[in-house]
Amino acid sequence: MKLKLTAILLCIVLAFAITGCSSSFKYESDNNVFNIDKIADISFVEKNGKTPTYIYGNGIVSADYCLNDGMITVKKQYLSTLSAGSYKYQVVSAKGKGEFEIVVVDNNRVNKIVNGDFESGDMTGWKTRTVFKGENNLLAFSSVTAKEDTLNKNDKYFALSGSDGKIGVMKSTSFVLGGSGYITFQLKGATNGALCYLSIKDFETEEEIARYSNSKNQNDFVQYRANLKNYIGRKLYVEVCDYGIGNGDFIAVDTIKTYHKTEPAGEMAIDIKPQFDDVVPTNQLNNGDFTNGLTGYTQIPFDALQNVYQIDNGVLKSDVNGDYSRGMLRSSLFKIDGSGIISLELGAGKGSKYDKNTYISIKEYKTNKEIFRFANRNSNGNEM
Fold first, then answer.
1. Which of 49, 113, 271, 364 counts the most CB atoms within 10 A of its CB?
2. Is the per-residue pLDDT at 136 higher than 90?
3. 266 closest CA partner among 276, 282, 252, 255
4. What is the sign of the dihedral through the CA atoms of 226, 229, 231 and 236?
């Protein structure tokens, strides 16, 4: 009896398998190849008009594709995460099953960031964040910007932070520096390199290895090339930053290319990342009480006015040219130990808006990440 029952069950299983095969899906695509240099969705059509229920394989989830009648569209956001190679996906439905294949071409894929030219028409490949406090209404780089009257159908979009008080950072995917060791990019705006710049960082340590602004001070895009030969083989990423809220504080960036077989053309970019002489700091700031004037500090003017800071009766003031003077003062390095508490006296600059343009910032050496920011909340404007 058991043997007969087993035979009956086996026949049922075989019959189901045969049925499944006879009604399997047959998917075709005009182009099942994904190229990092031309980011786009990939669609497959089921020739027998069968509608799939879901697909699986290679970590794909429902948010990574769309189902529309007999068509499957795999989104570019997911495709951009794939390394070079061939990928097979299984299709499941009550009416049958099937599979399709996607091929990701090599084309020096590992050496390139995703969507460096923004021609996907969106922020695919980029992660954006606020500078601090999570104020999403002030977030820069929320979308790409269309070029006006463009004649080049392959150059329609760029990224723009805007000069309307919005601030933020956008981060690229990683790449391994290869080829000639040069990268190129186009910048517009970004003339105030203290607040608006393009940064190259190490993917593992987040160390900032180079920082660039628009030294040509032009109102149109300038093509730059940057020599990073010393970092060939390192895994890096690009970070575009806007920390300024003034009318002229903005950065526009386009056509970031992180792989060149030979040295490319363009203006030579100048590295402006912060430099320090005292790389073995103590736990006290050099000249923290300003008894020696501005010794130990670096002035960084934002405008044509070169002098912003002065010492008045032992107090640092940023009003050499009046209340509208703009600039930055960078201290020497110090290390935290003891109680882990630092202290200072602060006056003027009272009000919630000043945490955007008049504040103290504590940053980490090498990564240059802001780890603490504070403004004056208690002063009446005249007393420390």
1. 113
2. no
3. 255
4. positive
CA distance 284 to 281: 8
DSSP assignment letter at 376: B
Above 60 in pLDDT, residue 1? no
pLDDT tens for 217-256 read 778 899 999 999 999 999 999 999 999 888 788 999 999 9
**End-to-end Cα distance, the chain:** 97
- What is the rounded CA–CA span in Å between residue 135 and residue 179? 40
Token representation of residue 238: 């690009």
Which residue matches tokens 């182009």?
31
The full 3-state SS of 134-165, as one line of letters, equals CCHHHECCCCEEECCCCCCCCCCEEEECCCCC
- CB of 115 within 8 A of CB of 126? yes
Token pair in block for residue 56: 């699986």
Q: Which residues contact 326 (CB under 8 A, 6 or more apart)?
A: 246, 301, 302, 303, 305, 308
Unique residue bearing structure tokens 């599979």: 99
With beta carbons less than 8 A apart as the criterion, state whether 47 and 23 touch. no
- Nearest CA to 254 among 194, 195, 170, 176? 170
pLDDT reported for residue 11 = 37
- Per the CB < 8 A criterion, the answer to whether 258 and 180 are in contact is no
Name the strand (E) or helix (H) holding 13. helix 2-22
Cα dihedral sign for 294, 295, 300, 303? positive
**Contact between 201 and 231 (Cβ < 8 Å):** no
30: which residues sit within 8 A by CB, 6+ positions away? 43
Q: pLDDT confidence of 149, banded at 50, 70, 90?
A: low
Buried b (16+ CB within 10 A) or exposed e, 314-333: eebebeebeeebbbbeeebb
353 conformational bin, left if phi > 0, alpha if psi -120 to 50, beta if neither: alpha
Tell me, what DSSP letter sits at residue 11? H
β pairing state of 71-74 and 65-68: antiparallel
Residue 295: per-residue pLDDT: 93
